[in-house]
Amino acid sequence: MRPPPPVRAAARARQEARDHGDDTARDRLTAQIHAAGWLVSDTPDGYALEPRRSRELAAIPLAQHTTLRLGGPARRLAVAQTEADLVDVLRGADASGEPVLILGGGSNIVVADEGFDGLVVQVATDGVERSDARVTVAAGEPWDGVVEQVVAEGLVGVEALAGIPGLVGATPIQNVGAYGQEVAQTIASVRVLDRRTGEVGTMSADACRFTYRHSAFKGGHDHVVLAVTFDLHEAPAGGAVRYPALAAHLGVEVGATVPAAEVRAAVLDLRRAKGMVLDAADHDTWSVGSFFTNPILGADEVAGLPAAAPRWPERDGQVKVSAAWLIEQAGFAKGYGAGPAQVSGKHTLALTNRGSATTADLLALAREIRDGVRDRFGVTLVQEPVLVGVTL
Ligand SMILES: Cc1cc2nc3c(=O)[nH]c(=O)nc-3n(C[C@H](O)[C@H](O)[C@H](O)COP(=O)(O)OP(=O)(O)OC[C@H]3O[C@@H](n4cnc5c(N)ncnc54)[C@H](O)[C@@H]3O)c2cc1C
User: 118 and 17 in one domain?
Assistant: First the structure.
């Protein structure tokens, strides 16, 4: 499709403005082109124009977009490369009542073998803006790259979250956490599209209602995260190490201050050893990370567990118990399973696709483990990933 003459004229004027360093005029013309339904980008020899409507791809298996390599086809898949595009596509789909699945890196979803009968919107927006220690990141930026960048710039606050797959926009959904940090500690606000009203607005961290691997967003469909603002710290000496295994690996006491770059490197070491850094050649990483969350139990329930069960105090007298311990003691060791879906050989909580599994295979394994733990300890484990078109 050839752009109409006014759009081409605006693109030429924009290029001149850019060449003269006139950012105000360039931005105004970019917005004008955008409003006319086109996207303009810089190329080495000028500019390129493409229709603003999202790139829409034919139905391809969602298995190609999930770290489990599982999931049937979507009816339609659109790739939204700008925030305006993302908002447009969603408003359009919502107005027509079409079911929508927002897709980030596909590292925390389990999609039915039958696929998704609706529009999958893949978030592919980009951009990182820094103002002092405040960093605002577009939802489509890969999370691990952002961690690497802010650590390299001397900022502290997310270094223990290195190696977590997926995109920034998904980090608030389940309040991602690892090695003593979680994003709730540093998120200042989240820019969202409210799909009920079609309005774009900002939610404070309080409004996100973050708890352990949960938030106001998880399992819901009302909000789409467009960007996340993190309040980090400028601290060349680093931050306090809170997680015992991480402190041990670094050779320091819990609470010691360690430079963020060292913490990040240590976390990546620990994660690799557990198959928790994506590696296409290693089936132990064909997972969603931990499949089950650590159960948070009341005093009565905990009293019934063996004294050896690892546990950590939570708010209101509740206690978090190690799901990995319960699973192992119920008879599901690392590597458990004879079929194409097995417990990872490196981590008891990761359920993996050995290459030829289906979603049905994976869920059968998950049910066997959940039921085994319930029969042995009376505790019902809850899954961490979002289930799409299936139930456990
Ligand atoms: C090897 C491995 C290790 C992992 N380790 C950890 C870990 O240490 N700690 C941890 O917390 N998690 C971990 N995870 C889980 C996962 O990486 C995180 O939950 C991650 O944040 C998911 O990001 P994603 O972009 O892949 O989300 P997706 O899987 O694409 O989506 C997850 C959910 O969020 C929704 N969603 C995604 N983007 C948006 C958006 N912009 N707006 C609204 N909704 C959205 C989706 O619709 C879906 O419901 C791990 C996963 C793997 C495979």
Answer: no
- Are residues 145 and 234 located together in one domain of the fold? yes
- Quote the CA–CA distance of 156 and 186 in Å, as a whole number: 10
238 shares a domain with 168: yes
Nearest to 177 by CA among 66, 103, 259, 276: 276
Question: Which sequence positions are flagged as catalytic?
Answer: 213, 290, 384
Give the closest residue to 162 by CA, choosing from 246, 64, 65.
246
Residue 355 CB contacts under 8 Å (≥ 6 apart), including other chains: 283, 286, 340
Q: What is the pLDDT of residue 23?
A: 83
Query: How far, in Å, is the centroid of ligand 1 from the Cα of 234?
Result: 27
161 in ligand 1 pocket by Cβ < 6 Å? Answer: no
Position 251 in a domain: yes
Q: Which residue has the tokens 């961290």?
A: 205
**Residue 67 Cα to ligand 1 middle (Å):** 10
**Which structural domain range is residue 242 located in?**
128-273
Residue 278 in any domain: the answer is: no
Neighbouring C-beta atoms of residue 325, cutoff 10 Å? 18
Residue 235 lies in a domain: yes
Residues 185 and 155 in one domain: yes
Cα 317 to Cα 19, 180, 189, 211: the distances in Å are: 63, 20, 29, 16
Indicate if ligand 1 lies below 6 Å from the C-beta of 294: no
Question: What is the per-residue pLDDT across 194-247, written as a single tens digit (0 to 9) for each?
Answer: 999 999 999 999 999 999 999 999 988 999 999 999 999 999 899 999 999 999
* Nearest protein CA to atom 44 of ligand 1, as residue: 224
In a domain, residue 289? The reply is yes
Residue ending a domain, choose from 123, 157, 176: 123
Give the global pTM: 0.86
Q: Which helix (H) or strand (E) holds 101?
A: strand 100-103
CATH code where residue 207 lies: 3.30.465.10
